[in-house]
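Deliverable D4.2, example record:
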Amino acid sequence: MADATGVIEAESAASKSDERESVSFWEYVESLLVTILLALFGTSFVVQSFKIPSQSMEPTLLVGDHLLVNKFIFGGEGAWYEKLLPYRPIRHGDIIVFKFPYDDNPYYVKRVIGIPGDRIRIIDQQVNVNGKQLDEPYVIHDPSVPYDPFGDTFPPTTTRFLRLAVRQEWAADILNHVSDGELVVPADKYFVMGDNRDRSSDSRYWGFVDRHAIMGGPVMIYWSVETAADSVDVDEGFRTRLHEFMDTVMHLPARTRWSRMFHQVR
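Output generated by the structure prediction step:
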């Protein structure tokens, strides 16, 4: 009897151990699924990462800056839930991430210069909004870039300059928004420009940003690495891109801009 009881107790202990392992496994699976769902929710509704690919926002944002974009910040579309959430309207000077209106809608990052109803005029590189010259301490101009008769004195009042580096769609529409030598921003549209004015493809050259195209605003640089502007060419072969990736990984500590880590974007 003693031997039989011992066998039964051993079997019972083994059964309980298997049961605990089974419970632990499913708890792990459940925890993993919850984590994945929270991550998907966060990247879908709250934050999203974005990498700066060009020089258009220098010196505020550098090529190789990796940003966290707050998708939970801008309201103003009239949805009922906006009264319950910490949304705010888009303001002058806000940096926004948005879908470019053309070319398969890549994401761009620029600064808001004009909001709906504003009247914009640029005279010899000086931006005026509603008759007042903007104070723009964040702007830089590159003396090596030749004077641009279109972008530096804007908007045009005739079709004379519309063949120069302007989207065809914008060239056909821009004069419809010009009144008394000023560009009038229509409803639900925004006029944006890069801080690096002489090296920025912005609203001067392709038009307004639609409100529904705005994803959010960058809040923090979580990582920054020295990277050449537009260093990844879509026409490059796999071996070339792999070599560049491995080179970056191998020299990561030296190329990381440690002083820009967790830097607030303004």
